[in-house]
């Protein structure tokens, strides 16, 4: 399943519908919605694009379970993600305490290396958002190692490579290429989204075009490029579903099936 790992939320329903409709038309079967504030989160959760009640699921879980999160008003299922942009380490810790029980994935975006290091170490953080040159330069080997150990995903964006003129584009590509050499996709979990498109929907690129770009320009083998667009976002969405459905008991322990009471009585006869 091709998944767009980061599309921007719009409070205007008609504007947002244009984004997710285009997302669907160019080949994505699901998307993660980027919410940048508490108001964004509340507006999305209360909107007609996200189920008001906890969807019923069947075991064993698979990525097809995400289809239960699609509403009648959306062509594809949408999963919420809140991107925190803390100004200090204390602010990050407070934010994580507030958001850990909410129905969302948690991403952290910062140019402060200390904040990124704490975020990469904290198991409550799902994603490190590094869409720009400056943020990618701040990813030290130590931060990358912590993110890998804690299964924290690295969120990059290719939008600026489409948007900017040749000189800036060359610089962006150079920094991205260095990051991919330092944190190889074969051993680190990358996801790619369309967060930077803002109101210019036509900057969004389809999954097959993105895979082709990663292969031909970034020298990423095609099977690894496909992993960035398919396997990695599927994993993180399943993480959200398990958390949303209260299937996590403690680290390393989770519910994998629920036996129906009537079925259990039948087995005991």
TrEMBL record:
InterPro entries: Pol/histidinol_Pase-like (IPR016195), RNase_P_p30 (IPR002738). GO terms for biological process: tRNA processing. The keyword tRNA processing applies. The keyword Cytoplasm does not apply. Keywords: tRNA processing. Gene3D superfamilies: Metal-dependent hydrolases. Pfam families: RNase_P_p30. This is RNase P subunit p30 family protein. It comes from Promethearchaeum syntrophicum.
């Amino acid at each position: 399943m091709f998944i767009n790992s980061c599309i921007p939320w719009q409070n205007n329903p008609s504007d947002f519908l244009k984004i997710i409709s285009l997302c669907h038309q160019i080949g994505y079967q699901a998307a993660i919605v980027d919410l940048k504030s508490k108001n964004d989160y509340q507006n999305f959760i209360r909107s007609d694009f996200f189920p008001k009640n906890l969807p019923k699921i069947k075991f064993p879980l698979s990525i097809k379970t995400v289809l239960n999160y699609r509403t009648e008003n959306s062509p594809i299922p949408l999963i919420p993600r809140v991107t925190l942009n803390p100004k200090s380490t204390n602010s990050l810790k407070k934010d994580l305490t507030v958001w850990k029980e909410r129905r969302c994935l948690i991403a952290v975006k910062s140019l402060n290396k200390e904040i990124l290091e704490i975020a990469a170490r904290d198991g409550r953080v799902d994603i490190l958002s590094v869409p720009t040159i400056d943020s990618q330069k701040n990813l030290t080997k130590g931060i990358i190692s912590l993110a890998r150990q804690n299964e924290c995903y690295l969120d990059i964006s290719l939008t600026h490579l489409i948007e900017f003129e040749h000189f800036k584009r060359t610089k962006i590509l150079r920094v991205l290429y260095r990051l991919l050499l330092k944190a190889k996709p074969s051993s680190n979990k990358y996801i790619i989204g369309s967060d930077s498109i803002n109101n210019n929907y036509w900057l969004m690129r389809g999954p097959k075009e993105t895979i082709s770009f990663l292969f031909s320009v970034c020298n990423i083998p095609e099977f690894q490029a496909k992993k960035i667009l398919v396997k990695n976002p599927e994993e993180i969405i399943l993480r959200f579903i398990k958390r949303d459905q209260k299937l996590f008991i403690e680290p390393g322990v989770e519910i994998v099936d629920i036996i129906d009471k009537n079925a259990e009585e039948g087995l005991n006869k």
